[in-house]
Amino acid sequence: MKIPQMITAELRRLTSTRMSVIALVALLAVPILYGGLYLWANQDPYGNLSSVPVALVVDDRGAEVNGQQRNLGDEAAEQLLDSDTFEWHRVSSDQADAGLQAGDFDFIVTLPADFTDAVASLSSDSPRQADIELRTNDANNYLASTIGTQAVARIQASVAQKVIDEAGLTLLDALHTIRLKLVDATTGATQLVDALSTAKDGSAQLAGGSATLADGASQLADGTAQLSAGADQLRDGTAQLRDGSAQVAAGAQQVAGGVDRIDAAAERVGSAAGDAASLLPQARADIAQALTDAGLDQARVDEVLTRLDPVGDRLAAANQRVQDTVTQIDQLDAGARQVAAGSASVATGAASAADGASALADGAGTAASGAAQLRDGSAQLRDGAAQLDGGIGQLSTGATQLRDGLAAGVEQIPDSDDATRQAQARAISDPVAVGTSAVTKAQNYGAGLAPFFAALAGWIGIYALFLIVKPVSKRAITALRSPVRVTLAGWLTPAGLGALQMVGLFTVLAIALQFSFANPAAALGILLFASATYAAIVLALNVWLGSVGQFLGLVLMVLQLVTAGGTFPWQTLPAPLAALHHVLPMGYVVDAMRQVMYGGDVSRVGSDLLVLGAWMVGGVLVAAIGVTRMTHHRTLKDLQPSLIG
Question: Could you read off the pLDDT of 400-421 as tens digits, one per residue?
């Protein structure tokens, strides 16, 4: 009997009765139903979160934020209710608790009474975090708790982004205002620098002028001091002149009084007159010298001498007349009286001159004192002007530094418009944009699980088939004694039926669930190859261990279920299970399916198929060895046909 004939005989056995056909069809549908229904149910769960009931409790009392009365809890609630993230229900705290307990809500999100107040505290001296409370009930659904945690994190990020956006805009507006003020301050500082430059020029001129004034005042003080000393001398000389002229006036009166006696003593008077006449030039010179010594200028001295000269002339004439004739005594008497009157006038003028000289001396002293004060004051003015010039220079340098510093500050603050500041505030509130790219990408959540559940469904399908398919034909073993052909026939029968299962499953995935395949032919080929590999492994277990081997096939399925890395990465497994991942075939089926389904690295498929091929060949060889062993131990009972082998 050839291999096709043995396969045909087994298929006739499996379809010999209506019940056997029903059993075969049912078992052929197992992987299709398992893989198709599971992936259909989990095709896009994250896209249907809007059907998950969530309670939203808002107890926020509101507070003043940036000068405005706000209730961030209500604002957040409005955004959540308008979104389709979940099926939000805004309820009271008691209603939420009751609904969570009864299973009406999967979790509760609460915005507490101090929510806005806590956010507002960020700009105060006592900042604190705002709380968002999450309450879950794992008795309803454990994954709902995980989803709730992620939802609260998104709410937290959304509120934080909103708050930072508004605070950032306020800060940027304040910086813009500061920039405008700095521009005004820079303009003012520039004007101050220009004014100080002008003041510096004026202060330099003032310093130079005050120095000149100080020098002139010093010279004036020296001159007035000399004038005061000369005036003192003039005062003393005129005082002497006054006293002398008074004495002359008194003498003239005595002369006038003694004229009568002169007449009596003509000889004596003549002699005296002669003597007086001889002494007159010397007296005139002495008077001129005295007046000059008294400080009178030459014109004044000449004036005085001019007034005295007639007296001398008269004295000379009198002497001449006295000498000539005694009879002219009356004229001499009259002349004496004139002399007396003139000397009185001289005395009066000398007194006036003395008074004027005294006043001049007093005025010169006052002028000298004032000039000294002027000298001291101008010296202080000179020193003060020099200090002022230096101070204005320092002030000008400081004002220049202030202007440059303000200008530098203006340059460091960008000149932005309202739209730019709003964009900057949005960037500050969300400074990092996550750019995602994928070498390969699954269509959706269900497509992401499809490689794993297709591989698992293939094993389940083969395992189910061996419930009714005979691992090998015992009659053929007894009759043919050809273990290789018997083994191949026993392997190809479930492998062919498994191929039908995989074609049906692939049809459901590609058409009913509309999963996209980067390489559909390769994906179907891998499923067929995997099913044939599973058939070889389960065949070997059944050939060697019978019903115990069939049970071990179930155990092996469970091991591969947890080690294939179909959901979480296999690196998260405990070390013993992670080691099995590199040995058992299902993990390689999952990897190969991912590469051809998502458009990944096709070179990895080759190594995966080599491992699967090794399992397939190994399974067939082990089964063939078991069949060879069976050819030496057969009984008549082995010839009796059975539905389940």
Answer: 888 888 788 777 777 778 888 7
